[in-house]
């Protein structure tokens, strides 16, 4: 009996504390779409991605063509020529893989470009969210764009437009 009363009191206290918290919601995708610098950065990233992808694909096609040529001629090649050709094919495949890593890897050109173009904008958004949260006393701000578990949220708690205004953009 004593444990159940204690449990009820504890649940009551927790529910009262939960009711006292203030929540807000933002949509970073919406915010980024309304910032011209972010749109420009995204376009630059897409152009670079296409360019890099075509370069990597060209090398991979070269390697594939070399392999097809090798298969067609392998019966007429000596053992030394086969080894030399196989080594050339492997080198071309390694070159394509290295180029792909240089462009698309965690320390690649695209990651560097993202750090240069997108990260400062995201930092500005974070600082605006932080300032507005402190100003209005929000205990938690959830990003609708990355919170896949949100099924419904009341639009009145969405502060995305306020964030845009704080950053100097109006919609």
Give structural notes.
This protein has 7 helices and 2 strands. The longest helix is centred in the first third of the chain and has 38 residues. Helix content is 72%, strand content 5%. The N and C termini lie far apart (58 Å). Helix 3 packs antiparallel against helix 4. The protein is elongated. The protein is mainly alpha-helical and 171 residues long. It has a two-stranded parallel ribbon with strand order 1-2.
Topology:
Blueprint: H1 2-20, E1 23-26, H2 28-33, H3 36-73, H4 79-104, H5 109-117, H6 119-136, E2 140-143, H7 160-166
Parallel strand pairs: 1-2
Helix pairs in contact: 3-4, 3-5, 6-7
Quick structural gist:
The chain is mainly alpha-helical and 171 residues long.
Main features:
171 residues; mainly alpha; two-stranded parallel sheet; 7 helices; 72% helix; 5% strand; elongated; coiled coil; Chaperone_Skp; Skp_dom_sf
Number of strands: 2
Secondary structure tally, helices: 7
Helix content: over 70%
Question: Main β-sheet, in a few words?
Answer: 2 strands, parallel
Structural class of the helix and strand makeup? mainly alpha
What is the succession of H and E elements?
A: HEHHHHHEH
Give the radius of gyration.
28 Å
Oligomer: single chain
Envelope shape: elongated
